[in-house]
Amino acid sequence: MKSLVGYCSLMSMFLLGCSTDCTQIKVLLPQASSGVYWIQPLFCEMRQDGGWTVLQRRSGGAVSFDRKWAAYKMGFGNYSEDFWLGLKMVSSLTKTKTLGGEREAFKLHVGEYRGDAGDAIRGAYSGIDQNGFGFSTADQDNDGCHPCIFGDIAQNACTSSDTGGWWYSSCGSASLNGEWHPDGDHIFQSSGLHWRTWHGPVGYSMNATRMMIKSV
């Protein structure tokens, strides 16, 4: 029995070593549980239909997402808690190039939206479509503001108000990497975690977010 258990453990390690993302692990090991898998490393979400690679998770303010380009490129945080996987890693995992390479500022390319929260990436109103825009941070601006005009306010960079790095387009209506706020504490109208086609007004900030990708 011990030999059989040892053999199975060895085979599991071999299969994991052959995997490049969470979908492959789910296919090879259907009963795998959610957790940190040392492939890259990655955090794999195995519940429900499983095989999802988590690229961002926010659940509190312990990990600051007000970071510069190098941090967003390589990733930061704790994979078992709040983290950002890294633009370089996500770009390498997307076979159809949902995310472009660094030369084009990791430009975002998303397909048709499906769900009930609204397509905030393409904007709550016209002129703020974030699809097709590069990633912006405080030290690398690709948001298209020259400047952006909001009423009587002129803004040269969306990161000055939204704080975290994101695929901004005239700032836009989706921003999940901003400053985290507890319930009732939204401070500035643009700070916080937003998906404005789902919940308004602008000052609303979500308590938790998770971004995931999956091979199809």
Automatic annotation (TrEMBL):
Record's protein name: Fibrinogen C-terminal domain-containing protein
Keywords noted in UniProt: Disulfide bond, Signal
SMART domains assigned: FBG (SM00186)
Signal peptide positions on this chain: 1-20
Presence of the UniProt keyword Nucleotidyltransferase in the record: no
One of the record's GO cellular component terms: extracellular space
Domain Fibrinogen C-terminal: 13-216
Record-level GO BP terms: negative regulation of T cell activation; regulation of immune response
Any Pfam family hit: Fibrinogen_C
PROSITE patterns: FIBRINOGEN_C_1, FIBRINOGEN_C_2, PROKAR_LIPOPROTEIN
